[in-house]
């Protein structure tokens, strides 16, 4: 199924096993077959839904010119007459655009190719205007690409091989990630003849899963699901519940393809680690030959999207059912963890996810081992996690990992699924930047700290405050000689995230920065303000080694003014011990809830050796925009969450953390809203443009991720826009120049990390916690008073 560069490369690829790699973006799994969708609609779906919801790929209908048949049945796409890229789905330009846009959204494209045969006999007119007479079967017809129909092409002919290879290589050059081969087994041609060439579509999976969920086989038989059922090896099997053929009673599959309990079977497929899963997304039909919805009987109609994310206008869109897209997120969250705690109705995926099924005629009501850490989780089958609440069932897991699981026979889905990303106590703790104004938390007396008594800062005068050591809080250009040359000042964009790094948001971060290169040839980078609780330190190390800036946030998200001083010291030690981050490279901090505490925040930052703070928000938007400034003198910035500093803190830079409300959840509105804000800087003083985000911001709207990715992909095309971490941007602010801001790319840190999975005890509560760290597990769960997790 997967990528072959050309037929001549088969032997080399087989040695490297590259033909079994689906070429997915990191942290993603599972594809969807958007059957008979138009290319423009697929591109929009990648940006607006598939990318943000973690889908890894799309299988598209055949892309080359096909015969036009009366009544326009779906199967006319499988009657090719040329290798022109013109079909009812669109032309070559639209196809190429779709591939680019989907790849940018982290979604790979897989093409259903037909090179075994061409169209059937009879005079034939094609979707691209070609005409052919397949019945002639003459060699000149082949040479002119009027290739014969359902009679086989002569694959032993070198010219035919060349034409097929040219077609496939052209698709690869356009950016597709793979192609398709099918087998049901029990025929003259066996799948075993092809498993050395790539992954195969495993029809036996569809047939067998149908038998189980129809009740012909018992659910407990699934305990050895995989090769024991006669399937090809896991890495060589593309698995599915149904496909476009057997969904309509065509081709292979027989009577055991599911129509009932479809969601339950799909959930099992996505929850189980076997194979590479593919979800079907189809349209309604009253006869098995019926083609897709049209506007006039010929032109394919676009899907209509309802407020609950489902589709209308004749489209079914199974991939938009919550029970399916939530299980794609489940699969991404559990990663490669194996099955544990397996019994006849449930299993866990390591310590990351748990799923249960009820396919019986009586209620399931049992205490089951989930393998998950203690906490309350949202069942992604019955509802959605929104912030810190769940619209469906909540599941409480005890300190022993067990939970009371109930699935009634009257429940239509028959499935329950939870994973670590649905832990409700990890809800949206902080609304930063684009997500809305942060709210100050009330503090108990024990968390209050006496304000440091320091001399009040004087008003800033340019004569007394000069670069590189001092800058007033204003919008003045960095150098007076830059006046009138604003368009030669490099425009910096600083993308920042705070809170834990985990498998789900790490995949989003990888996708956001994938392929982004600044005009000077250096890799684009962002800044990550790290908190300890629930962080995957191995992934922090990966971000660090990729050139992203790592900065301080918190250990527990406490907001007391005593708390954060010890928390930042502890976080610094944890980053060094568990993620191999050099403390000397940690230059900044952002406090939980943006709760600064007057002078104390900034005095402590200087004592830690930090060069900047990014905790002071503003809601004043003036033109021209302010530049970052030092706290040597009195600040002119508005004080949103007090108390704000009044003293002089020489040399410490303060970022301007903007808090604003986004518009409606629409890709274009969000894109142009961000672009308008960017243009305040780019068309004005060229002050650095900061985007201050919480890790959970993308989950607040279904179009947020797609709009954000579209925005940064747009900016990276500018010849003078640079995506960097905050500390590198501040290097420029201290020593500004016109044109290219730096002579060299930053040196990447050497911090090799041997990933270790740890299960340690949290001493304050006795509960077990799971950690992913570099090289060596701590003895106990690290905390404020024991940041290295030493045995005490």
TrEMBL record:
<dbReference type="InterPro" id="IPR006047">
    <property type="entry name" value="GH13_cat_dom"/>
</dbReference>
<feature type="domain" description="Glycosyl hydrolase family 13 catalytic">
    <location>
        <begin position="29"/>
        <end position="331"/>
    </location>
</feature>
<dbReference type="Pfam" id="PF01522">
    <property type="entry name" value="Polysacc_deac_1"/>
</dbReference>
<dbReference type="InterPro" id="IPR006048">
    <property type="entry name" value="A-amylase/branching_C"/>
</dbReference>
<feature type="domain" description="Alpha-amylase C-terminal">
    <location>
        <begin position="336"/>
        <end position="423"/>
    </location>
</feature>
<keyword id="KW-0868">Chloride</keyword>
<dbReference type="InterPro" id="IPR013780">
    <property type="entry name" value="Glyco_hydro_b"/>
</dbReference>
<dbReference type="InterPro" id="IPR031319">
    <property type="entry name" value="A-amylase_C"/>
</dbReference>
<dbReference type="InterPro" id="IPR052740">
    <property type="entry name" value="CE4"/>
</dbReference>
<dbReference type="Pfam" id="PF02806">
    <property type="entry name" value="Alpha-amylase_C"/>
</dbReference>
<keyword id="KW-0479">Metal-binding</keyword>
<dbReference type="GO" id="GO:0016810">
    <property type="term" value="F:hydrolase activity, acting on carbon-nitrogen (but not peptide) bonds"/>
</dbReference>
<comment type="similarity">
    <text>Belongs to the glycosyl hydrolase 13 family.</text>
</comment>
<keyword id="KW-0106">Calcium</keyword>
<keyword id="KW-0732">Signal</keyword>
<dbReference type="GO" id="GO:0004556">
    <property type="term" value="F:alpha-amylase activity"/>
</dbReference>
<dbReference type="GO" id="GO:0046872">
    <property type="term" value="F:metal ion binding"/>
</dbReference>
<dbReference type="InterPro" id="IPR006046">
    <property type="entry name" value="Alpha_amylase"/>
</dbReference>
<dbReference type="GO" id="GO:0005975">
    <property type="term" value="P:carbohydrate metabolic process"/>
</dbReference>
<dbReference type="InterPro" id="IPR002509">
    <property type="entry name" value="NODB_dom"/>
</dbReference>
<dbReference type="InterPro" id="IPR017853">
    <property type="entry name" value="GH"/>
</dbReference>
<keyword id="KW-1015">Disulfide bond</keyword>
<feature type="signal peptide">
    <location>
        <begin position="1"/>
        <end position="18"/>
    </location>
</feature>
<comment type="subunit">
    <text>Monomer.</text>
</comment>
<protein>
    <recommendedName>
        <fullName>alpha-amylase</fullName>
        <ecNumber>3.2.1.1</ecNumber>
    </recommendedName>
</protein>
<dbReference type="InterPro" id="IPR011330">
    <property type="entry name" value="Glyco_hydro/deAcase_b/a-brl"/>
</dbReference>
């Amino acid at each position: 199924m997967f990528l072959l560069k050309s037929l001549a490369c088969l032997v080399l690829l087989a040695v490297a096993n590259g033909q079994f790699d689906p070429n997915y973006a990191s942290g993603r799994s599972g594809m969807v077959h958007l059957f008979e969708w138009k290319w423009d609609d697929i591109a929009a779906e990648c940006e607006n839904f598939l990318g943000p919801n973690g889908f890894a790929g799309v299988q598209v209908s055949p892309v080359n010119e096909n015969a036009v048949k009366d009544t326009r049945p779906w199967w006319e796409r499988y009657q090719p007459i040329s290798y022109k890229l013109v079909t009812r789905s669109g032309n070559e330009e639209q196809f190429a655009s779709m591939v680019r846009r989907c790849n940018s959204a982290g979604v790979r494209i897989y093409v259903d190719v037909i090179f075994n045969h061409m169209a059937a006999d009879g005079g034939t007119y094609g979707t691209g205007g070609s005409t052919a007479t397949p019945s002639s079967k003459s060699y000149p017809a082949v040479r002119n690409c009027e290739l014969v129909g359902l009679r086989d092409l002569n694959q032993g002919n070198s010219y035919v091989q060349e034409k097929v290879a040219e077609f496939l290589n052209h698709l690869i050059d356009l950016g597709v990630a793979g192609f398709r081969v099918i087998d049901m087994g029990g025929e003259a041609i066996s799948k075993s003849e092809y498993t050395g060439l790539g992954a195969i579509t495993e029809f036996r999976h569809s047939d067998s899963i149908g038998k189980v969920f129809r009740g012909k086989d018992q659910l407990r038989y699934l305990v050895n699901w995989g090769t024991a059922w006669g399937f090809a090896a896991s890495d060589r099997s593309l698995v599915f519940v149904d496909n476009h053929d057997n969904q309509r009673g065509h081709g292979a599959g027989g009577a055991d393809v599911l129509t009932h309990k479809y969601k339950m079977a799909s959930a099992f497929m996505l929850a189980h680690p076997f194979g590479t899963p593919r979800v079907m997304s189809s349209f309604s039909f009253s006869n098995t030959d019926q083609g897709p919805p049209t506007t006039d009987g010929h032109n394919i109609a676009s899907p209509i999207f309802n407020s609950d994310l489902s589709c209308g206008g004749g489209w079914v869109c199974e991939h938009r059912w919550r029970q399916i897209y939530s299980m794609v997120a489940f699969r991404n969250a559990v990663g490669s963890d194996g099955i544990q705690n397996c019994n006849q109705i449930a299993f866990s995926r390591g310590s990351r996810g748990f799923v249960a099924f009820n396919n019986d005629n009586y209620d399931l009501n049992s205490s089951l081992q989930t393998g998950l850490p203690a906490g309350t989780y949202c069942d992604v089958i019955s509802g959605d996690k929104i912030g810190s609440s769940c619209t469906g069932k909540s599941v409480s897991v005890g300190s022993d990992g067990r939970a009371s699981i109930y699935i009634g026979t009257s429940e239509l889905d028959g499935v329950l699924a939870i994973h670590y990303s649905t832990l409700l106590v990890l809800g949206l703790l902080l609304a930063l930047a684009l997500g809305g104004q942060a709210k100050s938390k009330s503090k108990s007396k024990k968390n209050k700290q006496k304000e440091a008594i320091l001399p009040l800062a004087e008003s800033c005068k340019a004569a007394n405050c000069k670069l590189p050591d001092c800058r007033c809080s204003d919008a003045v250009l960095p150098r007076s000689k830059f006046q009138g040359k604003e368009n030669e000042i490099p425009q910096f964009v600083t993308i920042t995230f705070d809170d834990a790094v985990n498998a789900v948001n790490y995949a989003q971060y990888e996708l956001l920065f994938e392929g982004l290169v600044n005009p000077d040839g250096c890799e684009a980078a962002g800044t990550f303000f790290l908190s300890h609780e629930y962080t995957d330190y191995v992934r922090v190390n990966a971000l660090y080694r990729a050139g992203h800036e790592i900065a301080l946030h918190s250990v527990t998200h406490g907001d007391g003014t005593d708390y954060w001083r010890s928390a930042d010291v502890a976080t610094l030690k944890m980053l060094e011990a568990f993620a191999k981050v050099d403390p000397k490279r940690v230059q900044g901090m952002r406090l939980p809830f943006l709760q600064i505490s007057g002078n104390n925040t900034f005095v402590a930052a200087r004592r830690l050796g930090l060069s900047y703070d990014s905790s002071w928000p503003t809601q004043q938007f003036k033109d021209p925009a302010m530049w970052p400034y030092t706290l040597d003198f009195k600040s002119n910035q508005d004080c949103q969450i007090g108390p704000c500093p009044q003293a002089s803190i020489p040399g410490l830079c303060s970022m301007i953390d903007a808090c604003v409300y986004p518009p409606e959840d629409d890709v274009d509105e969000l894109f142009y809203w961000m672009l308008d804000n960017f243009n305040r800087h780019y068309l004005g003083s060229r002050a650095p443009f900061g985007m201050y985000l919480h890790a959970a911001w993308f989950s607040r709207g279904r179009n947020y991720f797609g709009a954000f990715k579209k925005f940064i992909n747009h900016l990276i095309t500018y010849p003078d826009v640079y995506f960097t971490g905050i500390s590198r941007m501040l290097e420029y602010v201290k020593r500004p120049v016109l044109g290219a801001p730096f002579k060299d790319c930053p040196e990447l840190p050497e911090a090799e990390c041997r990933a270790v999975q740890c299960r340690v005890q949290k001493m304050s509560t006795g509960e077990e916690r799971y950690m992913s760290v570099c090289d060596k597990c701590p003895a106990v769960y690290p905390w404020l008073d024991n940041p290295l997790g030493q045995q005490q």
